[in-house]
Design goal:
Helix content: 25-40%
Structural class: alpha/beta
Number of domains: 2
Radius of gyration: 18 Å
Strand order of the largest sheet: 3-2-4-5-9-10-1-11
Number of helices: 8
């Protein structure tokens, strides 16, 4: 299956206005983490927070409250090494049940940590792994290029960044500007070119905007744990849902993009092999 294995797909958004004010799309990640903490499903969560003085440079940290989660809401399109904060969550904070937000490549790394004994007593504390749809990631310097050099807006003046409808978008003082994605190619981190996973196939729940209407998120409930937590949040009234077959553009677009990433990665791996370069084992 091009989207990996999953139990159910739905379109969803948070019902909490405080979450929607700061969320990237439907606010699902924030809603799930807040629900999981308040219900004792997890004691805290590893998230990509904001580095002091640099609102677009993410810094991994441990969120313990609703306020912590809301403070880390939104997407920053450069890498946050969230797995590095997992040890902090378990050892320094003493958490026995941890939630974590990850990109697809990080999700695979987490599952490898859980499979091998050298990560015992750390990675096995993860009760909820939420994966984010991800086509590619950019160095922080590339964000400066997109914002300031291409769109003539200093990065520090940008209120929101987004990718959709074929463009990289910034919003500043209510004004939106878009840069065609053909102009962002070549700026992505090199490892992204051989990553074949768009939808975080190894997560408990994966989510992103593709496939759902504006302001909503597409959800793939993958594991029993993920489905149980998501359904619990829906029952509590924290999340509202729609069947995927009732929304546009729906799963066909998500499947198209996921397959495109797999095809692109396969071509790049073949190219590197022909050049005699070492390539990793990619699932």
């Amino acid at each position: 299956m091009v989207l990996g294995t999953y139990k159910e797909a739905v379109s969803a958004r948070a019902t909490d206005k405080d979450i929607l004010k700061v969320s990237q799309d439907g606010g699902i990640v924030s809603a799930l983490l807040i629900h999981a903490i308040e219900e004792g499903i997890v004691e805290g969560a590893v998230v990509a927070g904001k580095k002091d003085g640099e609102k677009w440079r993410p810094e991994p940290g441990v969120a313990m409250t609703k306020e912590d989660i809301l403070g880390a809401a939104g997407t920053r399109y450069t890498m946050s090494p969230n797995l590095t904060a997992l040890k902090e969550a378990v050892r320094q904070n003493g958490l026995e049940k941890v939630g974590i937000v990850l990109t697809p490549c990080q999700t695979l790394a987490l599952r490898k940590l859980q499979a091998y004994p050298f990560a015992r007593f750390v990675a096995d504390k993860v009760n909820l792994a939420i994966g984010i749809f991800c086509m590619e990631n950019f160095p922080i310097a590339a964000l400066d290029t997109f914002s300031q050099a291409k769109l003539e807006t200093p990065k520090d003046d940008v209120d929101k960044m987004d990718i959709g409808k074929g463009k990289f978008w910034i919003t500043s003082e209510g004004e939106e500007k878009g840069l065609g994605l053909k102009f962002t190619h070549g700026y992505e981190q090199a490892a992204c070119n051989i990553c074949s996973d768009y939808v975080a196939e190894f997560s408990d729940i994966s989510t992103g905007s593709v496939g759902s209407p504006d302001g909503w998120s597409t959800i793939l409930k993958r594991t029993d744990a993920g489905k149980t937590i998501f359904d619990s949040a829906v029952e509590a009234g924290l999340i509202e849902t729609k069947p995927m077959d009732e929304v546009k553009p729906g799963l066909p677009l998500l499947e198209k993009l996921a397959q495109g990433k797999k095809d692109k990665a396969a071509k790049e791996l073949e190219k590197r092999e022909k050049l005699g370069l070492k390539v990793p084992l990619v699932l």
